[in-house]
Amino acid sequence: MEDNQSLEGKIEALLNVEKQMRLAGDVVGTRKAVMDIVELCFQAKAWKTLNDQIVLLSKRRGQLKQAVTAMVQKAMQYIDETPDLDTRVELIKTLNSVSAGKIYVEIERARLIRKLAKIKEEQGLISEAADLMQEVAVETFGAMAKTEKIAFILEQVRLCLDKQDYVRAQILARKISPRVFDIDPSKGKKKPKEGDAVVEEAPADIPSLLELKRIYYEHMIRYYSHQNDYLEICRSYKAIYDIPAVKEDPSQWIPVLRKICWYLVLSPHDPMQSSLLNATLEDKYLNEIPNFKLLLKQLVTMEVIQWTTLWEMYKTEFENENNLLGGALGDKAAEDLKLRIIEHNILVVSKYYSRITLQRLAELLCLSFEEAEKYLSEMVVSKSLIAKIDRSVGVVCFQTEKDSNDVLNSWAGNLEKLLDLVEKSCHQIHKETMVHKVVLKA
């Protein structure tokens, strides 16, 4: 009881000092008085009094910004010293309410919300943690370090993915430009010009830019895996593969390179996939995993691939991916792999044949007549190739894709032939009239 009275007396005395300093406009004195009150409450382990004093001091008339900032920063140091979880949450909520709407403590508020979200997540309240994190838009904070901003946004993305809110995860991920990871951190920082906002140093627990790059692309892989977008997953693994720390360690780059190869094979044929495929084949590290080099070579070689032979050869490798970095390739990966091999084989046939019977096409693809027609139709619809099926005689006619110049040239050629024909017809008519002396009526 005496201790409480003693504490209250000391606080009262300091509050009077704080009032005098505040009304006199003494920034240093006010800040010291406020910090002394906070420290006094902490040393006495009077957590409820601490919360009450923080609220009281922040609401005092004409309270100085510097004093509020110093008080919030000082109290944040005591969060980890709290005796139990309830006290910790109460202190975080108090500081959060005090810093709400104050631009000069926006960084502290973001850090407080992150701590609170972590507690919620540990309690299994993922949805609440995600909603809490989304309250803060750190991309507008000029004084926050770039790495801390990225780390905060990545935490927002991760919680949305855990919550299975993939639309919001994509919106948040777009706030980070991948180009930001290509900046060389070894270059010296530019000195801020006069009038520029002073950027704070990132806390020690914030990862480096290259570590954040890896985390970013790991989150992107999770997002694209939900969409079954194999090409974007492949590009994400390629970005991880290009991180210097990964390339230096074979235990890291071999699983990543395996994933790149698998997702390249699983991606639908298009110019981007073809470019990545050729670039990967030129990679000297691919010689370390010859099976995958052979797999990629089969895709660029214009020869029909026997699905059964390929599956027997790579089935074990395919199943081994479950135990490696990134886990399984996806629920539909085996079906999609077969589909990509069929598409490759149809493209090969279209290169060598201008006309072929559907029966023969089905034999070359090791499929039934109906399946061959179905897969060919799907490729025509997706504009992967140009073909026409004469179902009455069961013949497929393949055509090469013409660009706009070729189409215009063919039209011009057809018009020229038509005009020549009209001119010859007119000449023949005049000749006949001259021979038979027939007068043409106007």
Automatic annotation (TrEMBL):
Residues 232-403 form the PCI domain. One of its GO terms (cellular component) is proteasome regulatory particle, lid subcomplex. The keyword Ribosomal protein does not apply. Keywords: Proteasome. PANTHER family: 26S PROTEASOME NON-ATPASE REGULATORY SUBUNIT 12 (PTHR10855:SF1), 26S PROTEASOME NON-ATPASE REGULATORY SUBUNIT 12/COP9 SIGNALOSOME COMPLEX SUBUNIT 4 (PTHR10855). Component of the 19S regulatory particle (RP/PA700) lid subcomplex of the 26S proteasome. The 26S proteasome is composed of a core protease (CP), known as the 20S proteasome, capped at one or both ends by the 19S regulatory particle (RP/PA700). The RP/PA700 complex is composed of at least 17 different subunits in two subcomplexes, the base and the lid, which form the portions proximal and distal to the 20S proteolytic core, respectively. Belongs to the proteasome subunit p55 family. This is 26S proteasome non-ATPase regulatory subunit 12. It comes from Rhynchospora pubera.
